[in-house]
Amino acid sequence: MIPINILPQEKPLSNKGGSLFSGTMGLKTLVIAWVRMIRPPILFLCSFGAVVSALNCAVYNHVDLTISQLILLILTPAFLSTGTMLHNDITDLESDRVNRPKKPVPAGILKEKTVYYLGIFLMVASIFLGSLINYQETGQINWVCGSFTFILVIIGLYYNYYGKHHGLFGHMAVAFGVGAIPYWGGLAVFPGQPLLMLPLGLAIFFLETGREIMVSAGDYNGDLKAGFRTVPVRYGRKRSMYIALFFYLLFIPIFPLSAFDWAGLHLPQIFGTVYLIGGIILATGLLLTWLLTYIVVIRTNDENKIWTAFERYERTGTRVMIIVFQLFILIEVFF
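Below the sequence we write its predicted structure tokens.
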């Protein structure tokens, strides 16, 4: 999430004694804090990604999605992503106290237990909703989607409790969740066709593995103090950036497989030219942001400038490019 300085106070606000509920300013501060906690851009990415993937699969199968399906396609990823992120904020608290002390929980605006239990509730609710995606249309529980959602919750918990402390597998756990967004969208509506979004999901998995390593390279100092054994902490910032670049490059040959069967795998050709253009733009942007960040790292030892570069190019820039890519996938629905 992009750090936003919304707190004029120099000292963290206390959440004891109900002072935050006294007056308009206290309520406003709470509302803004919760908005920051749910990460609207990431929530949008998850729900929008699932919907556009499902729409493309529906066009491919010549099926119209119902309003009920669309609502659940929006709510389920929203609940799942928000729940895992809220839960992660609690398990990531020690690092955030160093890297992002003005986030709502480190700043003392929101209570740890409230955030923790709300995160658990939302994750459980996402499993229930995922199982009901097609219930109104078929009268059957979607066990495939429900089970896959359960797996995503387990992977999220694994990352929050263990993965973030233990290098590459932790980064891959996050990447698996992000790559699962388009795959989940196809599986939710067409549980009997597991290959529909497999190439795109795999491509995004590799992309996000690289991105997670890059973001952790920006958080190097805080993660080091918190004892997190991320790839940058284990191997150093510069070497980890080369590892991230390797995963970025893996995205390039895999994403076209959903539109151009260059490998002869006979996978479903869900997309077309618009998708390929969007993917090329995304791949170019990934390499460009990597280069811009790397230039800053090799030219200065100023940690503030380095941290700003990682935040600007990797955390924010790559997210913007992925949103643009999703817009291309949406446009593909109409071609």
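Confidence is low (pLDDT under 50) at residues 1-25.
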